[in-house]
């Protein structure tokens, strides 16, 4: 319940980012350089310029408000993570169901594709693929729009992320297709679509839901890692990974700049992982209650 309430609050804040900006009175790109020191551009005041006007202080160098940038950064990360989780779940459920129910050569081909995708190192492939796709559509001196980077990141996660769900669903379908109610539906002349919708999927929703809830935090950290390496979301788009990377230059002079984005992504990922873990226990009929 605690992790669920935390997720609801964080997702509501991220979803209502424009409303939060209007109530806060500061935008993510506004700069307050007059509140920075002339030497090094360090925010004046306590803990990086924390005050009633700037709740989490200011960014060194540019003087942008950290709180409102974290709100928009969380919105970006959650949008990418949730979109990728939905796409990978749909692909994984379809591929796993087809492989498990049809079997034979179809199962062998899909299983081979899953093994091949799992064998590829995600980070190395992403480091090579993301810049290549960007250069395919934009020149080296052109500014790549944020929506394009978001689309590419979601696509990369979708290519690699569906395999775990597919393997889980395949194993469940292999067990379910031999059950009596499936045999009865098949004997009555029910088609594949009817069997999948009315016989298989109702018995698969629990593991699918748990897999989805655990996939979101992995995509949040994956997106932050790619942005930290400079191939995900970049300036001026607010993003956790980009903020943490930029804070490394001010680690000694303004450590609070790293603390706030680091703690925010830690709380977000921890809440999702705890929620997914407890959801798995709650939906498992063999678990102790």
What key attributes describe this structure?
289 residues; mainly alpha; MetI-like fold
Provide an overview of this structure.
By secondary structure, this protein is an all-alpha fold. It has one domain: MetI-like (MetI-like fold, Orthogonal Bundle). The protein contains 11 helices and no strands. It has helices at 2-15, 17-24, 66-102, 104-119, 122-137, 146-176, 180-187, 192-200, 205-228, 240-247, 256-283. The longest helix is centred in the N-terminal third of the chain and has 37 residues, at 66-102. The mean pLDDT is 86.
SSE layout and pairings?
Elements: H1 2-15, H2 17-24, H3 66-102, H4 104-119, H5 122-137, H6 146-176, H7 180-187, H8 192-200, H9 205-228, H10 240-247, H11 256-283
Helix pairs in contact: 1-3, 1-11, 2-3, 3-4, 3-6, 3-9, 3-11, 4-6, 5-6, 6-9, 7-8, 9-10, 9-11, 10-11
Q: Compute the separation of the termini in Å.
A: 15 Å
- Look up the CATH topology: MetI-like fold
Highest-level CATH class: Mainly Alpha
The helix count comes to 11
* Elements, N to C (H/E): HHHHHHHHHHH
Percent helix range: 55-70%
How is this structure best summarized?
Helix content is 69%, strand content 0%.
């Amino acid at each position: 319940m605690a992790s669920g309430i935390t997720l609801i609050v964080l997702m509501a804040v991220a979803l209502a980012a424009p409303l939060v900006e209007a109530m806060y009175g500061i935008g993510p790109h506004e700069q307050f350089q007059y509140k920075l020191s002339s030497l090094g551009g360090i925010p004046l005041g306590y803990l990086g310029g924390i005050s009633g006007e700037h709740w989490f202080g200011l960014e060194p160098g540019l003087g942008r408000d950290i709180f409102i940038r974290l709100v928009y950064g969380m919105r970006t990360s959650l949008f990418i993570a949730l979109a990728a989780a939905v796409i990978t779940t749909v692909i994984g459920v379809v591929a796993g169901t087809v492989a498990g129910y049809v079997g034979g050569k179809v199962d062998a081909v899909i299983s081979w594709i899953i093994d091949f995708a799992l064998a590829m190192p995600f980070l190395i492939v992403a480091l090579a693929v993301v810049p290549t796709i960007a250069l395919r559509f934009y020149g080296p001196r052109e500014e790549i729009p944020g929506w394009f980077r978001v689309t590419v990141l979601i696509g990369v996660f979708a290519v690699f992320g569906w395999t775990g769900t597919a393997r889980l669903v395949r194993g469940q379908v292999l067990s379910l297709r031999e059950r009596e109610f499936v045999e009865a539906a098949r004997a009555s002349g029910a088609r594949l679509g009817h069997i999948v919708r009315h016989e298989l999927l109702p018995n698969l929703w629990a593991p699918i839901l748990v897999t989805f809830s655990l996939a979101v935090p992995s995509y949040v950290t994956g997106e932050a890692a790619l942005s930290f390496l400079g191939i995900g979301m970049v300036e001026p788009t607010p993003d956790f990974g980009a903020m943490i990377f930029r804070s490394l230059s001010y680690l000694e002079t303004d450590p609070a700049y790293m603390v706030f984005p680091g703690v925010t992504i830690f709380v977000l990922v921890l809440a999702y992982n705890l929620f997914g873990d407890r959801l798995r226990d709650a939906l498992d009929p063999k678990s102790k209650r």
